[in-house]
């Protein structure tokens, strides 16, 4: 299977690309910099990647994040910009992939999970809920046996350790990556995998 992994230089994305490569899939690694460029803030890069990378069977997006913002002081513009890449960028990616993937193709997006209310997490909660609703409903609308799913990781062990925090509160990136691989290789539609 030929799989485009967007965000392939990040902690989760690189682990996903490695797991899929180890399973003998042909993986095209994309990121904001490098030979295959995708920036979810720039729809033109989505069009460009789909015109140059052909023959894809699956698209996996591990890119983008929603910033933590102070609900009381954030401006409307900052709030909208915070949702642009992770929410609207992934929706734009999925809409393009739907038109270009073959029958039975797969799209896997990335949300997030808060185990409890998080200070400055209202925007992130909005984005994650929006992605979950989009995936659940889009799965019922997709033509030609196409599938769409969402992985919603919480804290990643390696990220916590990189921040100088206790990594034991996070899930190893390799464990999260296996969930992406299971969705790419499986038959699930509209599934939300939370960690």
From TrEMBL:
<dbReference type="InterPro" id="IPR002347">
    <property type="entry name" value="SDR_fam"/>
</dbReference>
<dbReference type="Pfam" id="PF13561">
    <property type="entry name" value="adh_short_C2"/>
</dbReference>
<comment type="similarity">
    <text>Belongs to the short-chain dehydrogenases/reductases (SDR) family.</text>
</comment>
<dbReference type="InterPro" id="IPR036291">
    <property type="entry name" value="NAD(P)-bd_dom_sf"/>
</dbReference>
<dbReference type="InterPro" id="IPR051122">
    <property type="entry name" value="SDR_DHRS6-like"/>
</dbReference>
<keyword id="KW-0560">Oxidoreductase</keyword>
<dbReference type="GO" id="GO:0016491">
    <property type="term" value="F:oxidoreductase activity"/>
</dbReference>
<protein>
    <submittedName>
        <fullName>Short chain dehydrogenase</fullName>
    </submittedName>
</protein>
């Amino acid at each position: 299977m030929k799989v485009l992994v967007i965000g392939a230089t990040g902690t989760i994305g690189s682990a996903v690309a490695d797991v899929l490569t180890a399973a003998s899939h042909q993986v095209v690694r994309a990121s904001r910099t490098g030979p295959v460029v995708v920036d979810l803030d720039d729809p033109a890069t989505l069009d460009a990647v789909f015109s140059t990378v052909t023959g894809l069977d699956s698209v996996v997006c591990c890119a983008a994040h929603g910033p933590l913002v102070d609900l009381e002081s954030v401006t409307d513009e900052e709030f909208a910009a915070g949702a642009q890449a992770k929410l609207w960028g992934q929706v734009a990616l999925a809409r393009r992939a739907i038109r270009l993937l073959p029958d039975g193709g797969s799209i896997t997006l990335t949300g997030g999970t808060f185990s409890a209310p998080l200070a400055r997490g209202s925007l992130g909660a909005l984005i994650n809920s929006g992605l979950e609703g989009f995936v659940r409903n889009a799965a019922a609308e997709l033509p030609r046996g196409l599938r769409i799913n969402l992985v919603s990781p919480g804290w990643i062990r390696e990220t916590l350790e990189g921040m100088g925090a206790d990594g034991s509160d996070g899930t190893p990136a390799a464990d999260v990556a296996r969930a992406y691989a299971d969705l790419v290789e499986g038959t699930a539609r509209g599934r939300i995998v939370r960690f």
